[in-house]
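Quick check before the chapter quiz. The format below is the same one you will see on the exam, so make sure you can read both the input and the output lines.
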Amino acid sequence: MMKLAANCSLLFTEYPVLSRPDAARESGFGAIEFWWPFPTAAPSSGDIAEFCTAVEQSGLPLIGLNFFAGDMGQGDRGALSWTGREAEFRDNVDVVVAIGEQLGTRAFNALYGNRLDTVSFGAQRETALENLDYAAGALEKIGGTVLLEPVSGAPRYPLLTARDVVNVIDEFEATTHRRNVSLLADVYHLKVNGDDPVAALLTYRDRVGHVQVADAPGRHEPGTGTMDFDAILATLDQIGYDSWVAAEYIPSGPTADGLGWLGTW
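Here is the expected output.
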């Protein structure tokens, strides 16, 4: 049986953030994940406690959490390579590790960040590698993994394909002894960016640390677009992927009304 998780930053948005874990459980999901659920990189201890309590009371495991990614609504797509905000990122890492330790979360998505006009590509790459080393080192203490993903719809985001991400991981591994950075294979982003999801899963099977799904075009529920999910699911079985598959899509209406695919999967 497929292990299905709900991304509660895109699904169940008709509910307050802290009510979404319960909504996911009641709808039949076995786990949840979140983007960074706070407006700042280092939220108050009270806000952290409220979030953790909501997750714990839902009874669902939090299997994935994003690092702080800047102001997503204004187009930011991560802080990993954001030269000049290293201290903020590292403060966030400490919070992420604490949440992971409390909730048993072990997969953490670090959005790479957009290209900056005022900083060279090389300088941003160095920032990313140094921040990645800090995050991976901190997560080693709890058995955690840093995830990197290609992203679509963000013109200044430099990682578009699975190969782009693996190039970063290869460079990171060549310069450190750490081996806890993996590819987040979001089949929607791969497809939209012209990267064949099935080929990517087959080619980088040993690099895949997490999988997310949405249909394309539109980024809505499975069955609303042309994504060949039969082939994708068969490929996940072929490569022996037995971890969570997270639904990370924009519901085309109230979330519960579009969950007919859930029982089929």
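If your answer matched, good. The chain has one domain: 4-264.
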